[in-house]
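A.,

Following up on our hallway conversation. Structure tokens first:
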């Protein structure tokens, strides 16, 4: 039993080490993409890359997504992500997450006119689950990021099946928590960096290898007691 359990623990630790190398390579790829110029938004954009799309915003067909509390000069305020369709120069329509906006706005909101180029990253849609908050299509406020559902509600039934999340021109570092902690004084307030998956594989590897060492120690103690009998 000790041998079998030891092999399992060592196997899990080694698997986490392999995952660590894979995750570090992925994070390096994201860092490179973030520092490089965005690539053109294609038919099937690769994940964790910075892309750009050129077209015209349709602000009269905007919607809101989620419920997020942020801090503005007047204090903590409930808000949501502003979703605006962008008609690309080739005629396709893609939903753009332009960033956080307060639900009650006393100041002006940036609304670019004419042809614009949006740099950001692609976020694919979510599915409704049992515990998902109910969407309000009449108010154009959604709690599940489903591009097709949102597109149908705003009069764009042929939107692409993902959302382009706009990035701030002044991108923050990967360790910057400004997306949630900074005081927001203008809106929409876009994302500041590409999404980064968590990298906890080293601690997991230490856990599994540590359990393997503990198992060996317990076996040695047990074997010594048995030899004295």
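Then the amino acids I'd put at each of the 229 positions:
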């Amino acid at each position: 039993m000790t041998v079998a359990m030891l092999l399992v623990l060592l196997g899990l630790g080694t698997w986490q080490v392999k995952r660590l190398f894979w995750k570090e390579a992925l994070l390096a790829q994201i860092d490179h993409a973030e520092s490089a110029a965005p690539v053109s938004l294609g038919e099937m954009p690769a994940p964790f890359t910075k892309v750009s799309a050129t077209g015209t915003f349709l602000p009269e067909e905007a919607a809101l997504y989620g419920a997020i509390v942020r801090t503005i000069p007047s204090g903590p305020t409930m808000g949501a992500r502003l979703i605006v369709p962008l008609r690309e120069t080739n005629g396709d329509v893609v939903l753009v997450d332009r960033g956080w906006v307060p639900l009650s706005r006393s100041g002006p909101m940036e609304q670019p006119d004419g042809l614009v180029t949006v740099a950001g990253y692609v976020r694919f849609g979510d599915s409704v689950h049992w515990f998902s908050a109910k969407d309000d299509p009449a108010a154009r406020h959604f709690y599940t990021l489903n591009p097709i559902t949102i597109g149908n509600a705003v009069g764009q039934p042929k939107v692409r099946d993902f959302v382009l999340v706009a990035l701030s021109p002044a991108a923050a570092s990967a360790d910057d928590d400004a997306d949630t902690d900074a005081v927001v004084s203008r809106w929409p307030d876009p994302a500041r960096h590409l999404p980064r998956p968590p990298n906890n594989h080293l601690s997991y590897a230490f856990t599994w290898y540590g359990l393997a060492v503990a198992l060996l120690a317990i076996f040695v103690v047990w074997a010594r007691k048995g030899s004295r009998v």
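The mean pLDDT is 89. Curious whether your intuition agrees with the design.

B.
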